[in-house]
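Section 3.1: Structural characterization of target chains.
Under the original work plan, the team committed to producing a structural model for every single-chain target entering the pipeline before any wet-lab resources were allocated. The record below documents one such target. The sequence was received from the expression subgroup and is listed exactly as submitted; it comprises 204 residues.
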Amino acid sequence: MITVGLTGNVASGKTTVADRWREKGVLVIDADRLGHEVLREDRHARTALVAAFGEDILGPEGAIDRVALGTLAFATPETTHRLNVIVHPPLLARLDELLARARAEGRALAVVDAALIFEFGLDVAMDVNVLVTAPPQIRAERLRERGLDEERIARVMASQMPDAEKAAACDFVIVNDGTIEALRARADEVLAAIEAETMDEGGS
């Protein structure tokens, strides 16, 4: 089974590429969803997060308020690291289970959709890594349209590994600086190239 790491910084268009590949029948594992499951279901992680960030991250019913947590966790590199140390291990354990299941099912290809492929250290475990990127000014404008203020935009963008560093370590780079149709077309091209590689390995 070929494993593909699909990554991209905030508002890059990564989700559009992931959705396009799902439409094509590819198994895409959403690491963000796994992270949400950890926050919702993992009692150990919840206890550790409250200890690290305080009870202000809890909602009225005692569940983790992801917006409140994000505001505190992305305040500084140190607090982001604190979040990652708590959430990453149970998230990666869930990911390993899903990949093992895909192999057992005989899947030829599995994509891990994660903004933090490199930050997780997952890039070395993937057979192929794909970056979706867009100019910073376009990404910032997309975030404004989502309702984020300038301070939050700057903080979130600064907390992520620069695109240039990721691009240098990726096998494919999808530049999203045009229409959504162009982005989907480029996603199709990259998927076709990866699938061709999968077929070559299967025949070797």
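DSSP finds ten helices and five strands in the chain.
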